[in-house]
């Protein structure tokens, strides 16, 4: 699967706590995007996750659950992404929650379907930043996190998360220069094709999320822009 992921360029991210029509969901799933991530920060329930899963499953696009709440974990997804928040000030968000998940679920976990992400959250106003008690890193910090993710933890993904605001393309470029084997995912504030192309120039995969709910037509255009 990781070899297949190396070919990916674009992912849509859907929040199970937000509404999307069947018509728009079909357009996303049939757009040519490489995958759909189901994930969010607030009000994530098993019912909400199951509802989105059942609707996405009508299409052939790969479906990923990004785990933010253990109570909302369910079988049926193609893959599961497990975040480790590198710039959190609490060990809880890097190790303790993951440790508890292993205790609870290790006997049924299929590691061919599970990928751990080194997460770095770079928007102080983001709910995820506050929830995980992050501190804002400078450029040297971020590139060091990227180096750690690849060389110390050997994780398959390093995710730069600006969560709703458009990030610094030059920082994305610098981070990419630190990575040889780990894939660089970028998410945050991509609202149009121009921004998609700019971030895709450096990131391996761009994630488009919030604009699905604020400017659907332009969000949809980001697929063709980078492929």
Describe the structure.
The structure is a single chain. The protein has about 230 residues and is an alpha/beta fold. It has a single domain, classed as FMN-linked oxidoreductases (TIM Barrel), CATH 3.20.20. Helices cover about 35% and strands about 20% of the residues. It contains 10 helices and 8 strands. Helix 8 packs parallel to helix 10 (about 215-225). Homodimer. It holds the Pfam family PcrB. Its cofactor is Mg(2+).
With helices defined by DSSP (H or I, 4 residues minimum), what is the helix count?
10
Order of SSEs = HEHEHEEHEHHEHEHEHH
Task: Give the fraction of residues assigned to helices.
Answer: 25-40%
What is the CA–CA distance across the termini? Answer: 20 Å
- Quick one: how many beta strands? 8
Main sheet, how many strands, which sense, barrel?
8 strands, parallel, barrel
Q: Tell me the domain tally.
A: 1
Low-confidence stretches: none
CATH architecture: Alpha-Beta Barrel
Radius of gyration: 16 Å
Strand order of the largest sheet: 1-2-3-4-5-6-7-8
Indicate the mean pLDDT: 93
CATH class category label: Alpha Beta
Q: How is the secondary structure organized here?
A:
Layout: H1 2-5, E1 10-14, H2 22-29, E2 35-38, H3 46-56, E3 63-66, E4 79-85, H4 96-105, E5 114-121, H5 127-131, H6 139-151, E6 157-161, H7 169-178, E7 183-187, H8 193-200, E8 205-208, H9 211-214, H10 216-226
Parallel strand pairs: 1-2, 1-8, 2-3, 3-4, 4-5, 5-6, 6-7, 7-8
Helix pairs in contact: 6-7, 8-10
List its traits:
single chain, 227 residues, alpha/beta, TIM Barrel, 8-stranded parallel barrel, 8 strands, 37% helix, 19% strand, globular, phospholipid biosynthesis, magnesium
């Amino acid at each position: 699967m990781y070899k297949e992921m190396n070919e990916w360029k674009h992912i849509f991210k859907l929040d199970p706590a937000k509404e999307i029509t069947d018509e728009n969901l079909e357009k996303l799933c049939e757009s040519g995007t490489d995958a759909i991530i189901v994930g969010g920060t607030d009000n994530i329930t098993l019912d909400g996750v199951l509802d989105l899963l059942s609707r996405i499953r009508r299409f052939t696009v790969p479906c990923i659950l990004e785990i933010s709440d253990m109570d909302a974990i369910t079988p049926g997804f193609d893959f599961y992404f497990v975040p480790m928040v590198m710039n959190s000030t609490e060990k809880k968000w890097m190790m303790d929650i993951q440790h508890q998940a292993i205790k609870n679920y290790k006997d049924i976990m299929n590691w061919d379907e599970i990928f751990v992400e080194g997460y770095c959250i770079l928007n102080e106003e983001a709910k995820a930043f506050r929830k995980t008690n992050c501190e804002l890193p400078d450029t040297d910090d971020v590139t060091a996190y990227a180096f750690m993710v690849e060389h110390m933890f050997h994780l398959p993904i390093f995710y730069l998360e600006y969560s709703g605001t458009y990030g610094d393309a030059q920082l994305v470029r610098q981070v990419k220069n630190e990575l040889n084997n780990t894939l660089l995912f970028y998410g945050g504030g991509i609202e149009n094709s121009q921004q998609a192309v700019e971030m895709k120039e450096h990131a391996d995969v761009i994630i488009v999320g919030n604009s699905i709910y604020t400017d659907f037509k332009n969000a949809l255009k980001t697929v063709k822009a980078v492929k």
